[in-house]
Write a structure and sequence with these properties.
The protein is of the alpha+beta class. The protein has a four-stranded mixed β-sheet, covered by helices on one side. Strand 1, helix 1 and strand 2 form a beta-alpha-beta unit. The longest helix is centred in the middle third of the chain and has 29 residues. The protein is globular, with a radius of gyration of 17 Å. The protein starts with a strand and ends with a helix.
Length: 233
């Protein structure tokens, strides 16, 4: 059975990491059996979560994990044509490489209130002194990553303007469909759900969240996926 290493559940959502949520959602959409192992990224193969173990295989990074699950178990994208595959890839890049960083900014840098909520969720299981030290070290590290990516070089209103453009693109692409690419879930849905639920259904407040909440088709989509695949939460 696959062992999925990810953050502890919190906030009433599958996971506070969009990428952990993406992998667990893919597993649930394909009915692949798995066992959750709560973890922190310190000892992960690539220094980040999620990662999986499957027999002698140990894989990190959600993109490589999905590729492994597709080739070894079940491919959610097997019926997609070339155009749909291209759209799926482009939208996942938007989520993983752009919108993600705006979300990271809201949690690690935007307000102290958000940071305290984020710190408790990630490091709350550690002894108080270790929690504060680890939180401080990782906050500085993540802020440097946000800056290195380029997002952290902008003003808050500029970051949220860019994030809102991503939300518009997602809302327009989804339109009134059940899933992003039709009537059946694909990898794009696992990814989009992981990112969107971490914007609209978590206690991190920002103009980005307010804007996403105004998109009824996106909030309905998130609630529908959660009810369909996480009715046990």
């Amino acid at each position: 059975m696959i062992k999925l290493y990810q953050f502890e559940r919190t906030w009433g959502i599958p996971n506070l990491s969009p990428f952990c949520c993406k992998i667990e959602t893919y597993l649930r959409m394909t009915d692949i059996e798995y066992d959750i192992k709560p973890a922190l990224p310190f000892s992960a193969p690539k220094g980040k979560l999620p990662f999986i173990e499957d027999g002698n295989e140990a894989l990190g990074d959600s993109s490589f994990i999905v590729a492994y699950l597709k080739s070894t178990y079940q491919d959610l994208d097997k019926t997609l044509n070339d155009t749909e595959r291209a759209i799926s890839l482009a939208m996942q890049r938007l989520l993983d490489e752009h919108l993600f960083w705006a979300v990271m900014y809201t949690r690690w840098q935007y307000t102290d209130a958000n940071w305290q909520i984020n710190k408790k969720a990630i490091f709350g299981g550690l002894p108080p002194i270790i929690r504060d030290i680890a939180g401080s070290v990782w906050r500085q590290k993540i802020k440097q990553q946000i800056y290195g990516h380029g997002t952290g070089r902008h003003q808050a209103e500029e970051i949220f303007m860019l994030g809102k453009q991503d939300i518009d693109a997602l809302s327009t692409t989804l339109d009134n469909k059940q899933y992003f690419l039709g009537n059946q879930p694909t990898t794009l849905d696992a990814s989009a759900f992981g990112h969107l639920i971490n914007i609209v259904r978590c206690p991190i407040e920002s103009p980005l969240k307010e804007y996403a909440l105004s998109k009824r088709n996106l909030t309905d989509y998130v609630d529908r996926i959660k009810e369909e695949y996480y009715h046990d939460l």
